[in-house]
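Problem 12. The chain below contains 322 residues. Write out its predicted structure in token notation.
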Amino acid sequence: MNYGDLIKDAFWITLRNRYLWFFGFFAGGTSANFNPPVSSGSLDGFDNDFDRRGSVPVVLAQAGQDVFGEVTLIVAIIALVVLIVLVFIILYLISQGALAESVAALDRGEHRRFSSTWRAGVSNFWRVLAYFVLFILISLGFLLAIGVPLVLLVVGMYVGTESRGALILTVVLATLVGIGLLIVVFVPLSIVAQFALREIVVRREGVIDSIGSGYRLFRRNLGKSLLLWLIQLAIWIGAGIVLLILLLLLGLILFLPTIFLAVAEYVTVAWATGIVAGLILLALLLVAVGALGTFNHSYWTLAYLRLVTPPQEPTPQAYGGA
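Solution.
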């Protein structure tokens, strides 16, 4: 496998098919203060209500209505947050299948549009959902298998000894062992998950069979798979540093007018320019996240294809947008 060509091909697919950035964003993420109404008269207001209406139940009914109104608002906001999270989860699952299928098709020299990519994601939705649920259960099983014995060890040491030094040493050792086991288990598991997703979408394997196929592919290409993971990690660290520097520079440039206006005490105009600058910076950040998500997905899809099939020269239209 030529890792340089792999990175280059993933880069060109990402750059020339910018409609994929929408899916890359989701494949790659309201605060409210509730203040109880307090009358300006405080207890005097209560006394006035009592004197005017002459009935404690009436005052309590009004208080109950206020509480009911706040509870209704809280429930509505919670429902809205849950709805937004649900929409993001659905788009995340659709984007996984959409990117895997479309990148594989582009690598074969086929044409794809936003609409065809969306349809591919929707058609694979339930299988991708089942795949993620299964991997979540597998991950929880490994977490319990690693965490429970270590926790029992620490608890047993806490109960069985009064030595503070021995307890601290046990906690430190358990933590180090736990971190090591998590790395040993979850790095390979994450690679198997990448391969299994492509088995489901690209090769149309069953959900259970895809995990076995992904594991066998990882085992046959152990060194290459781990190197792929390390290269991806290095790319993400480098891209994150570059992105952070660019955002800081752009933020400084965009917020310069706001700073000058604030110093000149044009507060209203400063707020307006600050909001505009913030929106521009947020838009650029979302675009960058979408591009990086698309590159990451393309990288693993192309790596999977290079491992399961012999490398071939792409057609001239392979990485062009439709």
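Discussion. The CA atoms of residues 108 and 318 lie 6 Å apart. Students who got a different answer should revisit the alignment rule from Section 12.3.
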